[in-house]
């Protein structure tokens, strides 16, 4: 709600206007009275007046003079002029002072209320706009880091922004980079020690590296950084002042600071980073092509236990080497054959040989890393599918990483990933083999339960379609008891049960248990219990 000030040198008129008109209809909650321009200024100085109604002609300072002074200090107050006659010069000055309404005396109450209502709506609309702008600016301030990241990533990925619009966005986001000034890109990759970090710890390490870079480069360069989709930390570097030594001087200074950054990361974070520095161009020229070129060059160089400091201009010559294929990856026996056969020791030796060759001969080559990765994935996928399983079921979270593409920056990362997948595969195969043996045992015991009289190792093996010798080994491995021992134990237990609970003759019990000769049954029973079947029955009686 708003406050109104009525100003006129005629007190009766002021009192009538203040007391007789229902100002609450116009959104007014309090009405102040002033009988001169000076008194009006004193009231405005201590009260949140939103609207002033003033007569033009007053002794001393006029209504227009009052409005001019109000405008000089309280720009958002709305002013309504009352005049006893039309005057072009007055109207012109009123327009110059942005008077909200110009009313001729005498005027109806409805006219005054309508004029004040319009003034109040104008005030509310202005404050709403200010509030929206302030909210937008507050949102920008709160999200400025993310907005900077998005803008840089958009530019790196080829988004075209008109030069004047780009300048406005850079200023709004407080990015100190200037168009036309030289810049380069620096790509940074965390390696080795950082591989052990998972989840929320990784951003903390990256944040620490970003801060180190800011501190080391701050005296000479502006930095604008983002983490890209490849997991690289990308810095746009621009000198704070015009370089006096040309591109060569900039290159040397940037490389020196990058080297110091590598040293600081090793000293304080106990990890290593590889760095690539691009060529220099005027900002924002060639930004997206330069980024693509830098990524390609960086991905061709894989650090093992060494930190790399590369520049696009010299990296191909520095690390030129004749290209050849991997040997151990394709030497027989192949990975897929060892997986099929379940030859785990031989498979471990094969994997060690492959990765040893990678580290010794191709530690710099991202393409050889990819070659190994695709061969390993192919072997595993074939073996898993052949075992009637899905890779997504067996690999779990690792499968989702697999779908998003290889993210290996070092040979050790690929080695660890492969070892983890192999261990999961071994465990799954072992569990399936155990489940298979358990199922086999259940089949054997179910058959024996229903065919105890005619059951033998040969008949059971025929029932489960396995070699008798192999069946006996598997059964004993799973239960700790041979099938023949199991059959004998069950037959003796069945014999004692019948001797205790039935009136069957001894020869009938023997025949029912598959013993064709009663004398042989009696001998086996006596060897087991130290007495004949009849003696066992008599003792119970």
UniProtKB/TrEMBL annotation:
PTM 4-aspartylphosphate: list the residues.
55
Cellular component aspect of the GO annotation: cytoplasm
Q: Which InterPro entries match?
A: CheY-like_superfamily, Homeodomain-like_sf, HptR, HTH_AraC, HTH_AraC-typ_CS, Sig_transdc_resp-reg_receiver, Tscrpt_reg_AraC-type_HTH
Q: Show where the Response regulatory domain sits.
A: 3-120
Keywords linked to the UniProt accession:
Cytoplasm, DNA-binding, Phosphoprotein, Transcription, Transcription regulation, Two-component regulatory system
Q: Does the keyword Repeat apply?
A: no
Residue ranges constituting the HTH araC/xylS-type domain according to the UniProt record? 442-539
Against Pfam families, the record matches this protein to:
HTH_18 (PF12833), Response_reg (PF00072)
- Please give the coiled-coil regions recorded for this protein: none
Q: Which GO terms describe its molecular function?
A: DNA-binding transcription factor activity; sequence-specific DNA binding
Protein's cellular compartments: Cytoplasm
Biological process, per Gene Ontology: phosphorelay signal transduction system
Q: Which SMART domains match?
A: HTH_ARAC (SM00342), REC (SM00448)
| Name by which UniProt lists this protein | DNA-binding response regulator
Organism for this UniProt entry: Paenibacillus sambharensis
């Amino acid at each position: 709600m708003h406050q109104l000030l009525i100003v006129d040198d005629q007190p009766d008129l002021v009192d009538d206007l203040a007391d007789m008109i229902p100002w609450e209809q116009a959104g007014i909650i309090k009405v102040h009275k002033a009988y001169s321009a000076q008194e009006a200024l004193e009231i405005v100085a201590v009260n949140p007046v939103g609207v002033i109604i003033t007569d033009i002609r007053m002794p001393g300072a006029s209504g227009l003079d009052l409005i001019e002074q109000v405008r000089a200090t309280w720009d958002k107050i709305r002013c309504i002029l009352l005049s006893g006659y039309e005057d072009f010069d007055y109207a012109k000055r009123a327009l110059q002072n942005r008077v909200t309404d110009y009313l001729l005396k005498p005027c109806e109450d409805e006219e005054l209320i309508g004029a004040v209502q319009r003034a109040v709506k104008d005030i509310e609309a202005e404050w709403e706009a200010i509030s929206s702008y302030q909210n937008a600016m507050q949102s920008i301030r709160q999200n400025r880091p993310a907005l900077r990241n998005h803008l840089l990533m958009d530019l790196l990925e080829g988004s075209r922004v008109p030069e004047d619009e780009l300048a406005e966005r850079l200023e709004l986001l407080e990015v100190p980079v200037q168009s036309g000034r030289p810049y380069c890109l620096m790509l940074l990759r965390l390696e080795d020690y950082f591989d052990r970090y998972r989840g929320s710890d990784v951003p903390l390490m990256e944040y620490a590296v970003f801060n180190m870079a800011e501190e080391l480069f701050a005296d000479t360069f502006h930095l604008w950084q983002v983490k890209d989709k490849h997991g690289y930390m990308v810095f746009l570097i621009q000198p704070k002042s015009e370089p006096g030594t040309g591109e060569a001087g900039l290159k040397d200074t940037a490389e020196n600071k990058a080297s110091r950054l590598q040293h600081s990361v090793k000293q304080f974070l106990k990890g290593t980073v590889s760095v690539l520095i691009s060529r220099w161009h005027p900002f924002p020229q060639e930004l997206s092509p330069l980024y693509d070129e830098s990524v390609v060059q960086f991905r061709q160089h894989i650090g093992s236990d060494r930190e790399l400091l590369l520049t696009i201009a010299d990296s191909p010559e520095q690390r030129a080497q004749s290209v050849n294929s991997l040997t151990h990856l394709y030497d027989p026996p192949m990975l897929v054959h060892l997986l099929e056969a379940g030859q785990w020791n031989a498979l471990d030796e094969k994997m060690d040989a492959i990765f040893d060759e990678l580290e010794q001969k191709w530690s710099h080559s991202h393409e050889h890393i990819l070659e190994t990765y695709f061969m390993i994935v192919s072997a595993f996928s074939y073996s898993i599918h052949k075992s009637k399983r899905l890779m997504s079921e067996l690999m779990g979270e690792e499968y989702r990483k697999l779908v998003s593409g290889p993210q290996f920056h070092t040979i050790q990362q690929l080695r660890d990933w492969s070892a983890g997948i192999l261990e999961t595969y071994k465990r799954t195969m072992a569990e399936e083999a155990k489940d298979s043996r358990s199922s086999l045992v259940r089949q054997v015991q179910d058959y024996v339960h229903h065919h105890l009289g005619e059951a033998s190792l040969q008949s059971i093996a025929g029932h489960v379609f396995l070699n008798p010798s192999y069946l006996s080994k598997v059964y004993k491995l799973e239960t700790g008891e041979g099938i023949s021992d199991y059959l004998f134990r069950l037959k003796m237990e069945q014999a004692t049960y019948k001797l205790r609970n039935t009136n069957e003759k001894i020869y009938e019990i023997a025949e029912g248990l598959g013993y064709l000769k009663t004398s042989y049954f009696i001998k086996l029973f006596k060897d087991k219990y130290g007495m004949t079947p009849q003696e066992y029955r008599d003792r119970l009686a």
